[in-house]
Amino acid sequence: MKKGIVIISLVLFCSVIFAQQVPITSQYMMNRLVINPAYAGALDFYTASISYRKQWINLDGAPSTQNISIHGPALKGKIGLGLMFFRDVIGVSKENNISASFAYKIRSRNKKVLSFGLSGSAVFSNNQWSQIKTTNADDAVFSADSPQYIFPDFSAGVYYKTPRYFAGFSIPMFLQHKLEGSSSSYKIENDFSNYNYLLEAGLNINITDKIIFKPSFLSRYLPSTVYQFDINAVVDINNTIGFGISYRTKDAIVGMVQLHLTDQLILGYSYDHTLSQLQKYNNGSHEVFLRYDFRYKVKSIDPRFF
User: Fold this and answer.
1) Domain boundaries defined on the chain
2) Could you tell me the sign of the dihedral formed by the alpha carbons of 153, 221, 50, 69, in that order?
3) What is the C-alpha R_g of the chain?
4) What is the DSSP string of 4-40?
5) Coil, strand or helix at 140
6) What HEC string does 48-112 produce?
7) 30: which of 66, 128, 163, 250 is 20 to 30 A away, CA to CA?
């Protein structure tokens, strides 16, 4: 079990040196504010969400993520505002992020909306290095925990939607926070090669009056290290229950279910079956999602997806 903590901590140590990473969630399509600040107010009513994700069950030190957010329109829909808090724990490292989002919207008469968004974050991070067991008990690097670091970060994005389809592009958390070795302090840098570029699109297809098919994709590109692609398919039945499946390249296949408990309350659950080399060390990942929509008029067929 200690081996798991050491492996994950070393991986995290490398990522802390070079770049901020966007926490992976499988149900981001139910709250795109987590990946794109331009989504703030996109549903034209206020909505609050809470989620919990436990990744790689039975792997000691595996990531866990909690997220709370609220966003909605203001000034008669001309702008969108959002607040979000997430906590990310990987091994001995913990990060709390508080962000505020602003989106400016250009609307057309045929219900097409183009949004430009920005968000600013305060990031609180610390590493409990003393929990790591090393071969050298006197290793000074791991003898004491790090101080509490506080640093800024920013995200930017654009989001376009119509009643039937959407597309978005974002660069979340684009500042890099490099740990300066012996000084135990962070240096903030802006390096284009360490940006996370996210591109997504999707649409609603009415199969019948009560069944909607919702295919979508999300690509993640980090020039210095990673390219990843998600392909998603969700079927919504009578605005009551939804079933979905997602494939994340070189990582996992995901099963999802979404229950519309009331016209305003949605409960979601997803399970990730690992496809990578970590498959032999864990029993998959679980994610639970709850969303409340502050609105009181419901259409007969209501996407609530864009």
Assistant:
1) 2-294
2) positive
3) 20
4) HHHHHHHHHHHHHHH---PPP-S-GGG-GGGT-GGGT
5) helix
6) EEEEEEECCCCCCCCCEEEEEEEEEEECCCCEEEEEEEEEEEECCEEEEEEEEEEEEEEECCCCC
7) 250
**Measured between alpha carbons, how far is 47 from 73 in angstroms, rounded to an integer?**
10
Query: Measured between alpha carbons, how far is 106 from 109 in angstroms, rounded to an integer?
Result: 10
What pLDDT, in 10s, does the model give residues 253-286? 999 999 999 989 999 999 999 998 888 888 899 9
As a whole number, mean pLDDT of residues 113-118 equals 97
In this predicted structure, the answer to whether residue 12 has a pLDDT above a threshold of 50 is no
- C-alpha to C-alpha distance for 83 and 248, rounded to whole angstroms: 28
User: What is the torsion angle, in degrees rounded to the nearest 10, for the CA atoms of residue 84, residue 25, residue 62 and residue 195?
Assistant: -80
Count of helices and strands (H, E) across the chain:
1, 17
Residue 178 has pLDDT above 60, yes or no: yes
Q: Provide mean pLDDT across the span 181-186.
A: 59
If we measure between CA atoms, which residue out of 220, 6, 22, 257 comes closest to residue 119? 22
Nearest to 71 by CA among 83, 63, 62: 83
Environment class of residue 299 by beta-carbon count within 10 Å: exposed (0-12), middle (13-18) or buried (19+)?
exposed
Within 10 A of 227 (CB to CB), how many other CB atoms are there?
12
Q: Span 2-294: which CATH code?
A: 2.40.160.60
Distances (CA, A) of 25 to 65, 235, 276: 8, 19, 17
The one-letter code for the residue type at 123 is V
Q: What is the pLDDT of residue 277?
A: 85
DSSP element (H, E) containing 2? helix 2-18
Mapped onto helix, strand or coil, the DSSP state of residue 195 is: coil
